[in-house]
Amino acid sequence: MKTWLDKWDPEDDAFWSSGGSKIAWKTLTITTITLLLSFASWFMMSVIAVKLPGLGFNFSKDQLFWLTAIPGLSAGFLRIIHTFILPIFGTRHVVSFATAIKLIPVIGIGFAVMDVNTPFWVFAVLAFTTGFGGGDFSSYMPSTSLFFPKRLKGTALGIQAGIGNFGVSVAQFVTPLVLSVGIYGAASVFTSIDPKETVAVFQNASIEKQKEVFSALNAEVQTKILSNVKKNVIDSVTTSIQSDDKVVLFTSLPVKAKAKAIANANPKMAEKILNDLKPGNTAVKNQEIYLQSAAFWYAPFLIILSIISWFYLRSIPMKASIKEQMDIFSNKHTWYCTITYVMTFGTFAGLSAAFPLMIKFLYGDFPNAPDPLVYAFYGPLIGSASRIAFGFVADKVGGAILTTITGLGILGGSIILVTQGLVAPTSMEQFPMFVTVILAMFFFTGIGNAGTFRQYPIIFAENQRQAAGVIGWTAAIAAFGPFIFSKLIGNNLSANGTVNQFFIGVAFFAILATGINWWFYNRKGCEKPS
Questions:
Q1: In this predicted model, what pLDDT tens digit does every residue of 61-113 receive, in sequence order?
Q2: Which domains does the chain have, with CATH numbers?
Q3: Looking at per-residue confidence, does 107 or 141 come out higher?
Q4: CB of 253 within 8 A of CB of 210?
Q5: Residue range 397-425, pLDDT digits in tens
Q6: CB of 454 within 8 A of CB of 153?
């Protein structure tokens, strides 16, 4: 079948009305649906990782954050590749192949979660392959930019990016629903520990029984459990008992500290300890789930959409070699646009990846702790919806003002998170405000994502091929957001149990990016009003 269109000139009204419009909107429809699945498969590890400890995977907190960070790392590199392949291979070939190749992580992760002996490195490799879904964006969006006239670019790009971003919410919303559905393979027993009931178990267990149970554990497990206790508590108790014996140290801890240390241990290990302390306790909760279904359900949709893409998509005849496309890097505005898009989409993607684990590790120790997956999908949903809605607004008022508003919103959200102690919580009473501020930041990132993609075709109006390249490049760098957020947040939590330092950094970056946007693209008399 013919791949390349003979002619494409969307700015010609006669061409557009005689058939160009139909082709453009058909292409947008197909690529947007495939992009939605791309984002969903890209972020599926962020929701699956939350459930792994409860199945018996003995991964540390740092390893879990690595699993949510790696997809961002791979997507960033793959987006750089996607930035340059569209003018070489065309929309039809790129979209069809990119859709089909996502079967690798979908099927691989499905089988990996069914065996608790699957090593961490296998999960790390599979997490890297989920980046296939994140990489697509840097060829899909430039493709859409080329298919539409200038007057509709903001609308078309806003629709595609917004609905595509909904894929993050799809992954986080569908996962809890399909966990009870057996698509393939047997169910696994998922174990969770109730912190409040764990305190009751220790209150009713004698010190002698606690010594007996804890001393039966090997030294490595004892060390891991004690690592869940705050350093100042360990130091205080060690000084008091004048002993570094782990069994004596553990049994001398305050009841709440012991309960918290066990509740934060691997759930399967915690189950064994609590059952030894008090058989039939109510602190241990078990249920059967099909975690593999959270990956397998994508497969039929990916197969169908790869076939549809091959038979119904065509490519615009705008070929250019990689060397020719490198001219975007000699333009200073490529770098300024990169900074502003890291602020908007980088924050959206980063928060999307880290939000579930932030809930788990910041608020998971408190009584009546929230289920991360109950709240996780709301953020990407709000950010995606605001991106779609403000795509139309950007066509009317320009994108620069929206990007400036976004920067101020992210700055304000970061300040509130730090100054109100929401990312260094002391009680569950802070959780509603924490969620509200994070969701507000998601909302602002959607506004900024709509604004930036309206700006770039105007900033590079003299060369639409360059404009498409810049869209791909900026998206590639911003795709490192999940890696940056997950790793730095994970490091902060491991070091001191808070995320204050990270959001202070976010605030300073928002000031930098907003200043650049305002000076070059937003203020009166600026160089490139957009």
A1: 788 888 888 888 888 888 888 877 887 888 899 999 999 999 999 999 999 99
A2: 1-179+293-317 (1.20.1250.20), 189-289 (no CATH), 321-529 (1.20.1250.20)
A3: 107
A4: no
A5: 889 999 999 999 999 999 999 999 999 89
A6: yes
CA distance 324 to 86: 13
Q: Is the pLDDT of residue 384 over 90?
A: no
Helices within 242-363 (DSSP H only)? 246-252, 255-263, 267-277, 293-296, 298-312, 322-325, 332-341, 347-363
Tally of residues, the chain: 530
For residue 324, pLDDT over 70 is answered with no
Digit-coded pLDDT (tens) for 222-266: 888 888 777 777 778 778 887 777 888 878 888 888 888 888 788
Taking the C-alpha atoms of residue 327 and residue 423, their distance in angstroms, rounded to an integer, is 43
d(CA 340, CA 123): 32
Return d(Cα 151, Cα 396) in angstroms, integer.
10
71: its two tokens = 């997809």
pLDDT digits (tens, 9 = 90+) for 436-463: 999 999 999 999 988 987 888 789 877 7
Distance (Å, rounded) from C-alpha 1 to C-alpha 314? 10
Return the sign of the alpha-carbon dihedral for residues 374, 376, 377, 383.
positive
**526 in Cβ contact with 459 (< 8 Å):** no
Q: Which residue has the tokens 């010190």?
A: 207
Query: 441, 410 in Cβ contact below 8 A?
Result: yes
Of 363 and 506, the one with more pLDDT: 506
Task: Look up residue 252 and give its two tokens.
Answer: 């001398």
Distance CA 98, CA 38 (A): 9
- Residue 244 burial by CB count (10 A; 0-12/13-18/19+): exposed, middle or buried? exposed
Instruction: Examine the pLDDT at 431 and tell me if it is beyond 80.
Output: yes
SS3 content of the chain, % helix, strand, coil (to 5): 75, 5, 20
Contact 48, 295 (CB under 8 A): yes
Where do we find the tokens 């009305």?
17
What tokens does 277 get?
């302390």
Q: What average pLDDT does this structure show over 176-194?
A: 82
Nearest in space to 467 (alpha carbons), one of 479, 480, 478, 452: 452
Q: Which amino acid is at 215?
A: S
Q: Which helix (H) or strand (E) holds 190?
A: strand 188-193
